[in-house]
Amino acid sequence: MKVLVTGAAGFxxxxxxxxxxxxxxxxxxxxxxxxxxxxxxxxxxxxELGISQSDSQVFNELTEASLKKGFSFVRMHLEDRENVSKLxxxxxxxxxxxxxxxxxxxxxxxxxxxxxxxxxxxxxxxxECCRHNNIxxxxxxxxxxxxxxxxxxxxxxxxxxxxxxxxxxxxxxSNELMAYTYSHLYNIPTTGLRFFTVYGPWGRPxxxxxxxxxxxxxxxPIKVFNHGNMSRDFTYIDDIIKGxxxxxxxxxxxxxxxxxxxxxxSNIGNGSPESxxxxxxxxxxxxxxxxxxxFFPMQPGDVPRTWADVSELEKMGYKSKVKIKEGVQKFIDWxxxxxx
Length: 340
Prior knowledge:
There is one protein chain. The chain is of the alpha/beta class and 340 residues long. Helix content is 40%, strand content 16%. The protein has 12 helices and 13 strands. The strands form 4 sheets. The protein has a 7-stranded parallel β-sheet, with helices on both faces. A two-stranded parallel ribbon has the order 7-10. Helix 6 packs parallel to helix 7. The relative contact order is 0.13.
């Protein structure tokens, strides 16, 4: 297939591009390389995919000749309606994996405009391009954050999610509603994946595993929120990519539960939450150091626990296999290699 992966310089997007290329697909990656976190890490991910930093600058000028076979990279904002449309017209994609988004719950409290621009306006542009270019399947990233402070566990896609507690969560919920509308009106097969706390090598520096590892490695205290009374459905990146592959190859049709609309929502997680204490302990074991802990109350927009009901995805063949100790060790091995 010819696949567009937005957010290609991001954590999940990078790993997905790598796997799609390994499987023989033709991939075009798109990313705006913003400064939400260190851009060197994003450029190093692209380097692993065969794209140098100078290459990413060249592709600011989008022409048909600038896109090559195998893997190409385009530096672009999703809000750039004209050039996003041009990219779709030039390439003739079969499927689209929209993983680009302004991420982070806490950042949304200070920079709300960034979330509307990327996650709402940008997603609308993707939907419009899918509508006008005969895209066979749009897979897009939603988030476990849409569940807010739901008390019922595990979280199921049938649960009510009308009370987001962060703007980030609200934009992800809006993506699901927008996708449903386009599936209904224009018969576009769409799948929204609600990701649960993804971790692993090449991960995001603003996530807990990266923050804890960096602090413990430097013998600095780590910030433990809600006084440590938290749990997360930590999911290793390889399991996430396998799940994406399964869903990508099985677009929704009109024979499912909702027979009138080719639309699907799925949780994608481990299906087995871990306490924050056990997570920190795994990092301590892998680093061979003891963490210095500073305890704080819950942060605005955060939730005490997440737990994914992945039963529907398991019916399609998905199975999370990597346990927390193994996954944390793999991340630590990468971290120590990458930062020498």
